[in-house]
Amino acid sequence: MNPLQLEDPLQSFRFIVALDPPFHYLPIAQAIAVSVVWGGGFQEASGLGAELEVMPYAEGGMNDFVHQLPVRHSFPRIILKRGLIRDPGLWWWYMAGMAGSLGARRDGAIVLLRPSGMPAFGFTFLAGLAVKWTGPTMNSQQDGLAIESLEIAHEGLVPLPLTPPELL
After folding, report:
1. What are phi and psi of 167, to 5 degrees?
2. For residues 29 and 125, what is the distance between their CA atoms, to the nearest angstrom?
């Protein structure tokens, strides 16, 4: 088995979520005790984007155009829909945010899997907080907890490198 290949327990859940240990947000002794979490599989991921806010500035004597000066970046919430989790890690992360815990901020990754189970592409998010949990929908045909949606507020996105073709 290829070491980069990820287990794909459910064919229709193509987006997986992983949370990194909160090394940047907790004292080292506590951060080491928190493991990497493979949170679950989802069918949809939206909100993977960014926007640069600009401020118009009309320069005196320049009537041809108005300067657009950069102010700050903002990132919409990542919304993961129709998910299934088999580990309570995402729920604990959400509950940590409700309690105001320092460990509530986590870096993480959202990865789209190919039908073979190999990563196709993805994004890492920085300083994420689980801010909204919708569900669960109970289904007696599944051996996990279904989630309608999970929303993540964050402070930045970084694209993950694509898998080289020779590893597919």
Report:
1. -95, -5
2. 23
Residues forming beta bridges with residue 77, ordered by sequence position = none
Pick the CATH number of 15-162 from 2.40.160, 2.40.30, 1.10.3210, 2.30.110: 2.30.110
- Element of type H or E holding 16: strand 15-19
Provide the token pair at 93.
């992360």
What pTM was estimated for this model as a whole? 0.72
Q: Taking Cα atoms as reference points, which of 166, 152, 158, 123 lies closest to residue 4?
A: 166
Chain center to CA of 91: 14
Helix and strand numbers (H, E) in the chain are 2, 9
Rounded-to-integer distance, Cα 85 and Cα 91, Å: 9
Q: What is the pLDDT of residues 61-112, one digit of tens each?
A: 878 999 999 999 999 999 988 887 766 778 788 888 888 776 688 888 888 8
**Tokens 């993805």 -> residue:** 122
